[in-house]
Amino acid sequence: MKHSINSKLKVLVVIFVSILICHNTLAQKYSFFQLSDVHVTAPELIKSKGKAWEKFNTNGPNLYDESLQLFKSSLDSVRAAHPDFLIISGDMTKDGEKVGHKLVAGLLAEIQNEGIKVFVIPGNHDIDNPFARYYDGDSVWYAEPTTSKDFAEIYADFGYNDAVSKDESSLSYIVYPYKDLALLCMDSNDFSEAVWSKSGKPDTTEASCIGGKYTEETLQWMERVVKEAQASGRTVIAMQHQGLFSHFDGEENLFRKNIVNSTDTVITNSMVCERFSNAGIELVFTGHKHMSDINFLEMNNGHKLWEVNTVTLVEQRPGFRRCCIDGNQVSVNSITLKNVMFPTSEGRTTDQYAYDFNWNEGFEAYLTNLSQQFASILSDFTSNIPEEYASILELLNIPKTIDEVRPIVKNYLIHEALDVFHAL
Q: Quick one: pLDDT at residue 9?
């Protein structure tokens, strides 16, 4: 059985979830924030705006130009509330550029210097990413990417130096920030998915890591360190980047790479969930899906396994979570950014600006980009057809211009979206 609590509201939402604590009840009350998928774009990556940056940013429209300002505003909210700690569940940067990671780490150091502990994990964008690039007018070239070793060094002060134990086969670690609380920070990424250009230059053959997968070695490490933490009298809460389980019927088929081990036939997603629950984990904070939702699974051992999935800062309704653990009760406040003003805001609230960008300006730009690609393909196709077949070509009425292709592509996208909704 599944039960979902919807937290997709524009204003502050407070959800009280009694989920902890079968193993231990915390003696102290702790407050913390969760950010996820902040996708900070270092300004120096965009040497000058032109066709190259425009093409990238319209393939999947995100507020990359505004990402640094949105991240700083979120950190200002953290400062104002001064929680006990802050967790960030991956995708720190646009695409794993080392210069971006160093920028984020510098801003997090300011937060930590104010007495707020910070813990991070990598997301699928953060490491060994072929889309770590510079943009200058019509040109694009590689920026220095970040390796796993680099990531642990750059964020050494935000979890890795304080780790009680580190997994040797991933960037997972566990920390004991307080005498009755342990934080399990799981690296759920499968960075082997990344595909780099064979030409040594950025091209369309490249692909970054998206999905997540736990190995048997990492799961055994998890079970051991959770047992040790519980033996020390600590309650364990966890975070990872990819989703832990499906939040709606069909998600595991429609968006398989949203969910950890969803494509693995040896260690399946249901096996991962069972092992998390049997280890004593009841609450996991995640990101990756760019949405806000809270859900739980009823497990075979009689316990509930809760997942708090948190929205990105670079799409519609950018926001974060403000949480509190008190005894065996967890409250989750969903906060949407509203008062971050950009040069092009024109009086709109932050969430309205983000909505307009993603669904109006963003969709139209994406549609134009896709139409240009199809028009080019069709042009190449028709130009190679022998002249004797020209009359047949006219009868087929194959579109030749972007204006002719655009309504066809738009209609196709609408039908695809309707098919997705009908499948739910």
A: 27
